[in-house]
């Protein structure tokens, strides 16, 4: 696990900020630096979410935090925790929608884009095509372009002015300077010679530097269009988290004093009894106290097969009751529900900063000042090369190159490359029931080469089932199972439950009057770790270990003991059954292997991971499971105690392996924390999930492979984004400085660069479809 996942100091607190006005990576860098100047404050700022995750020591107030952001030129508000308290009711996503709304939603930008486009088309036609020109066309072009470079471009000018007041510069500074320079230069030329465009074609033949009204208008329109498309795309990137938080039921039917009352889901309290009818969503996490049904958990876990539930079964909020009526006692409500915790984990992951983004941050810190310097240098060098007698075309070429440098430079693509990829990848993961704790996890999934799989609950179901029954003369297998099931039905032990369930399933419904129920047991007694005994149909029945049989005066012969040894050597748990004081048979039970485990392990191998089975069971049991799922015998660690799991991880790490660990129990938590990549199965305990880097909400091992594939795909997308952002600027700026790029094309390229980065990230929305 990475250092930023370690528990914070007890006197620290974490707050979430919503920040208005950020437009590029330079903004992010400046806000982080400003907050970092407060002693003990650590901040991670997210550009597409326009939010910040801030760790604050006890001596710093919320007001100091917001004032510090304001001193950088931005408006910050504290997101209050009550937002999370209503996730169960599906209303907690408002803050997330606000993130996308600050500083230029598609809705706010649309009228500016439309107006700019309508005015820019005639300006472009008049300026570029002589056939559309008429006497004094320059003045018409100036008049049409004026609203474009003032009102339509106002978001750029406003942000540039705010930054200038704080002696700072961002992408908006470059755009604003480029547009104003083009328009002001052109207006100056026109005012100096009012008759410059008195006749069509005169402007090109004059000795002036020419007019750039079309450049100012076209650049503004392209950049507004780019920001409009970007805002739309960013909203789509955040749709997954909004959809996740919207899964919760809006209201719940509570049973109170014998009557049903419908209340908003966010008013539920622990121990409330909720009535859930077929087709309804379960309003919050709880335990079934009455009724049986199949629950569709696919929206939360990503698993399509409904889960059978009955009295005592835990259920998760936002899952759908498909058949029978259920009474559910609420165990967790509000911010403590599984859905709320999923939303929190996804949001925290999206606000994190991947190590791969650090280089982009360092570059963005100096990007705009360097570009401004390059633009000034470009203009000066072009003039110097023109010689002492500078002509109009030479002035025009110098100006064109300088404006192109200003307009093509795009720190925005650098700022969006990592967070938008992370936003989309983690959002898609949430839809598939996969929670990625933070951006460092992406890098860990790429480097992991070994995966430790805890057997029980990960590779196997963790539930024993009867595998076979051996009967000794004169008893039949059916008699052995039926009589053992009858006596075991009175016990609470997991082995007893498995035998009783198998016996019930084997009893034909027509055979008994009560529809397949087992015979009653009288005089029931049990011994912990030994077995059970009782009288069934007036016959004494004993079931349990060898010692228990001997305590009850039953002595198996050597042949019978051989049959028991053979069963245990095959990896089964073997239970004696004695009837009327004589050994009647042996029932073998096994921990059932999950249906998709073998295929999942094959996928893990294809991902370059070496699967190793880790279990506290004996070697025979472990070898049987390993052979069934395709794990080599030398890759089985059997008889490992909970503390030994941590040692196993450390031994592999000491041997040079980068270790991933998948587990689900409390005893797996230390090993999950020790591993380079901890993966918790969501059917497991909260302790295991808290210790893990990746969580799969289902209990299918195939989801572990899917989680690693998604994480690697997200990392690859981020790297592609960063490559494009670096390549674009590294090539675009020199080409513009050499005068090989028209400023209008530069503006289009700049707008396209950000849109391309976001569009590339949005491809992750199709992962796994």
Give the oligomeric state of the chains in this entry, treating copies of one chain as homo and distinct chains as hetero.
Answer: single chain
Based on Cα principal axes, name the global outline: elongated
Structural class: alpha+beta
Over the alpha carbons, how many angstroms does the gyration radius reach? 35 Å
Question: Tell me about the biggest sheet?
Answer: 7 strands, mixed
Strand content: 15-25%
Strand order, sheet with most strands: 14-26-25-24-15-22-23
- Head-to-tail CA distance between termini: 30 Å
Task: Give average pLDDT, whole number.
Answer: 81
How many strands in all? 26
Which residues sit in consecutive blocks of at least 5 with pLDDT less than 50? 1-9, 82-103, 204-209, 509-515
* Helix content range: 40-55%
Please give the count of helices.
27
Structural features, described:
The chain is elongated, with a radius of gyration of 35 Å. 52% of the residues are buried. The chain has 769 residues and is α+β, with helices and mostly antiparallel strands. 49% of the residues lie in helices and 18% in strands. The strands form 5 sheets. It has a 7-stranded mixed sheet, with helices on both faces. A 6-stranded antiparallel sheet has the order 6-5-7-13-8-11, with no helix packed on it. Strands 16-21-20-19-18-17 form a 6-stranded antiparallel sheet, sandwiched between helices. Residues 1-9, 82-103, 204-209 and 509-515 have low confidence and may be disordered.
How are the SSEs ordered, and which strands pair?
Elements: E1 13-20, H1 25-36, E2 42-46, E3 51-56, H2 62-71, E4 75-79, H3 94-101, H4 106-128, H5 137-152, H6 154-165, H7 171-192, H8 202-205, H9 213-237, H10 239-245, E5 251-256, E6 259-264, E7 273-276, E8 285-290, E9 293-296, H11 298-301, E10 307-309, E11 314-315, E12 320-321, E13 326-332, H12 338-351, H13 358-386, H14 392-408, H15 411-431, E14 434-436, H16 440-447, E15 450-454, E16 460-471, H17 477-488, H18 494-506, E17 521-527, E18 531-536, E19 539-544, H19 546-551, H20 558-569, E20 573-579, E21 582-593, H21 597-606, E22 610-614, H22 619-629, E23 636-637, H23 642-654, E24 659-663, H24 669-674, E25 677-681, H25 686-691, E26 694-696, H26 702-737, H27 743-762
Parallel strand pairs: 15-22, 15-24, 22-23, 24-25, 25-26
Antiparallel strand pairs: 1-3, 1-4, 2-3, 5-6, 5-7, 7-13, 8-11, 8-13, 9-10, 9-12, 14-26, 16-21, 17-18, 18-19, 19-20, 20-21
Helix pairs in contact: 1-13, 4-5, 4-9, 5-7, 5-9, 6-7, 7-9, 7-14, 9-27, 10-15, 12-15, 13-14, 13-26, 14-26, 14-27, 15-26, 15-27, 16-26, 17-18, 21-26, 26-27
């Amino acid at each position: 696990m990475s250092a930023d996942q370690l528990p914070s100091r007890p006197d620290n607190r974490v707050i979430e900020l919503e920040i208005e006005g950020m437009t590029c990576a330079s903004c992010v860098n400046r806000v982080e630096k400003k907050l970092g100047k407060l002693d003990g404050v650590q901040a991670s700022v997210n550009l597409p979410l326009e939010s910040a995750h801030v760790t604050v020591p006890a001596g710093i107030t919320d007001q100091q935090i917001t004032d510090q952001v304001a001193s950088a030129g931005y408006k910050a508000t504290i997101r209050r925790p009550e937002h999370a308290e209503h996730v169960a009711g599906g209303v907690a996503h408002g803050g997330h929608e606000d993130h996308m709304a600050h500083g230029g939603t598609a809705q706010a930008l649309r009228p500016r884009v439309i107006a700019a486009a309508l005015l820019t088309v005639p300006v472009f036609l008049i300026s570029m095509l002589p056939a559309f020109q008429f006497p004094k066309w320059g003045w018409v072009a100036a008049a049409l372009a004026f609203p474009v470079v003032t009102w339509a471009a106002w978001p750029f000018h406003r942000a540039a002015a705010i930054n200038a007041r704080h002696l700072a510069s961002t992408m908006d500074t470059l755009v604003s300077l480029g547009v104003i320079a083009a328009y002001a230069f052109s207006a100056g030329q026109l005012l100096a010679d009012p008759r410059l465009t008195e006749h069509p074609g005169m402007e090109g033949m004059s000795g002036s530097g020419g007019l750039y009204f079309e450049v100012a208008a076209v650049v503004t329109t392209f950049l507004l269009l780019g920001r409009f498309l970007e805002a739309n795309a960013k909203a789509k990137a955040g749709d997954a988290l909004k959809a996740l938080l919207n899964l919760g039921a809006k209201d719940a039917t509570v049973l109170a004093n014998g009557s049903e009352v419908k209340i908003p889901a966010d008013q539920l309290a622990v121990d409330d009894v909720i009535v859930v009818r077929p087709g309804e969503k379960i309003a919050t996490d709880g335990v079934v106290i009455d009724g049986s049904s199949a629950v569709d958990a696919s929206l939360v876990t990503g698993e399509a097969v409904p889960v059978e539930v009955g009295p005592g079964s835990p259920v998760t909020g936002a899952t759908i009751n498909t058949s029978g009526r259920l009474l559910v006692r609420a165990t967790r409500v509000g911010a403590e529900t599984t859905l709320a915790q999923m939303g929190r984990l996804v949001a925290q992951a999206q606000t994190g900063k991947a190590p791969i983004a650090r280089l982009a941050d360092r570059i963005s810190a100096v990007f705009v000042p360097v570009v401004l310097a390059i633009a000034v240098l470009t203009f000066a060098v072009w003039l110097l090369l023109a010689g002492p007698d500078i002509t109009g075309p030479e002035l025009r070429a110098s100006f064109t190159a300088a404006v192109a440098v200003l307009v093509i430079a795009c720190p925005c693509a650098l700022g969006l490359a990592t967070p938008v990829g992370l936003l989309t990848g983690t959002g898609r993961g949430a839809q598939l029931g996969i929670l990625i704790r933070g951006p460092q996890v992406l890098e860990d999934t790429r480097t992991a080469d070994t995966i430790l799989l805890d057997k029980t609950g990960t590779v196997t179901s963790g539930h024993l089932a009867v595998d076979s029954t051996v009967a000794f003369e004169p008893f039949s297998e059916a008699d052995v199972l039926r009589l053992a099931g009858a006596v075991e039905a009175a016990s609470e032990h997991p082995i007893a439950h498995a035998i009783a369930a198998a016996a019930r399933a084997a009893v034909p419904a027509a055979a008994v009057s009560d529809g397949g129920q087992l015979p009653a047991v009288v005089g029931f007694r049990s011994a912990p770790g030994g077995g059970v005994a009782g009288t069934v149909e007036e016959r004494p029945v004993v079931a349990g270990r060898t010692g228990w049989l001997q305590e009850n005066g039953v002595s198996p012969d050597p042949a019978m003991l051989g049959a028991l040894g053979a069963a245990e050597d095959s990896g089964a748990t073997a239970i004696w059954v004695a009837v009327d004081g004589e050994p009647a048979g042996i029932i073998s039970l096994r921990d059932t292997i999950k249906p998709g485990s073998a295929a999942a392990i094959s996928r893990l191998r294809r991902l370059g991971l070496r699967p190793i089975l880790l279990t506290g069971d004996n070697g025979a049991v472990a070898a049987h499971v390993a052979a069934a799922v395709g794990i080599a015998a030398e890759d089985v660690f059997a008889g490992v105690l909970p503390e030994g799991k941590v040692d196993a991880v450390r031994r592999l790490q000491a041997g040079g392996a980068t270790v991933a660990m998948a587990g689900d129990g409390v005893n797996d938590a230390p090993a999950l924390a020790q591993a380079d990549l901890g993966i918790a199965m969501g059917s497991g305990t909260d302790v295991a999930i808290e210790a893990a880097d990746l969580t799969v909400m289902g209990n299918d091992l195939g989801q572990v492979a899917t989680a690693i594939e998604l994480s690697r795909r997200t990392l690859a997308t981020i790297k592609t984004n960063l490559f494009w952002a670096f390549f674009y600027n590294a090539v675009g700026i020199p080409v513009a400085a050499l005068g090989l790029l028209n400023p209008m094309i530069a503006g289009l390229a700049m707008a396209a660069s950000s849109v391309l980065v976001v569009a590339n990230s949005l491809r992750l929305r199709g992962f796994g479809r």
